[in-house]
Design goal:
This protein is mainly alpha-helical and 252 residues long. It is built from 6 helices and 5 strands; from the N terminus they run H-H-E-E-E-H-H-H-E-E-H. A 3-stranded antiparallel sheet has the order 1-2-3, with no helix packed on it. It has a two-stranded antiparallel ribbon with strand order 4-5. The relative contact order is 0.04.
Length: 252
């Protein structure tokens, strides 16, 4: 992770001077820390290391671990320089003068003040917007009590009426409501057209069957009427014969 951080800082700054400064500071701190260690020998002639500040003693060399890590970092930085030769040859920027530092401090102060003013203006605008939203919600809550089926459909507006052109308050439909009604009518008309187009063959076939059935019914009615008239004729003949027989028997 540390090497990745070094690579990012080198790419952002455009050179290795900050990384080199960090390595130099690390080397100085290591030297200062290792200055308290002493190399001594015990009564058996074995070498050990002793820290004068902490009274710590150990047989392994404390310089091995820290210098190994330092050497690994220096080696990785050298490989980075091989991969980034342009950045490795980049010169260290000159230190800013006192006037430049004062000018930079003034610019930072002006920028900080400017950002503070912008934040205050944004906070003031947010307060105004929040108050307006609260007021609108309170107004809507006051007006919207109870069911309102005509809300958004009707409105009051002033129009010129009559030949005199006097302005009067007129209740009219809102534009969105008129458009919604027109759209509903157009949709209903299109649904009717589509339905008629879809069921027209069935309607025509039903009309044809109705004509055929009507002809059959007419013929059936004619046949029934003729049959009924024939029955009436036979009944009348039988009744006439009965009447003749009754009269003849009475005559004898």
């Amino acid at each position: 992770r540390e090497i990745v951080g070094y690579h990012r800082s080198v790419v952002q700054l455009g050179g290795f001077w900050e990384v080199e400064d960090k390595v130099a500071e690390m080397e100085e701190s290591i030297r200062a820390d290792l200055a308290d260690w002493m190399e001594l020998f015990d009564e058996h002639g074995e070498k050990f290391f002793y820290n004068r500040k902490t009274d710590e003693s150990r047989f392994d060399d404390p310089r091995m671990g820290v210098y190994h890590n330092l050497y690994a970092k220096i080696k990785m930085i050298a490989k980075m320089k091989e991969r980034l030769p342009l950045l490795a040859r980049a010169h260290r920027p000159e230190e800013p003068s006192v006037q430049d530092r004062e000018l930079q401090a003034r610019r930072e102060e002006d920028e900080r003040k400017y950002m503070g003013m912008i934040i205050r203006i944004q906070a003031f605008a947010r307060v105004i917007i929040a108050k307006r939203k609260v007021r609108d919600k309170l107004t809507a809550a006051t007006v919207s009590k109870g069911p309102q089926p005509l809300r958004g459909k009707l409105r009051l507006r002033v129009e010129k009426l009559g030949p005199s052109g006097e302005r009067e308050l007129v209740l009219s439909q809102t534009t969105p409501h008129r458009r919604a009604k027109a759209a509903s009518k157009i949709q209903a008309r299109m649904r009717g057209v589509i339905a008629r187009k879809r069921f027209r063959p069935l309607v025509l076939h039903r009309a044809y069957l109705g004509q055929v059935v009507t002809k059959l019914q007419r013929q059936a009615r004619i046949w029934l009427a003729k049959r009924r008239s024939a029955r009436l004729r036979v009944q009348r003949q039988i009744q006439a014969a009965i009447d003749i027989q009754r009269v003849f028997r009475g005559y004898k």
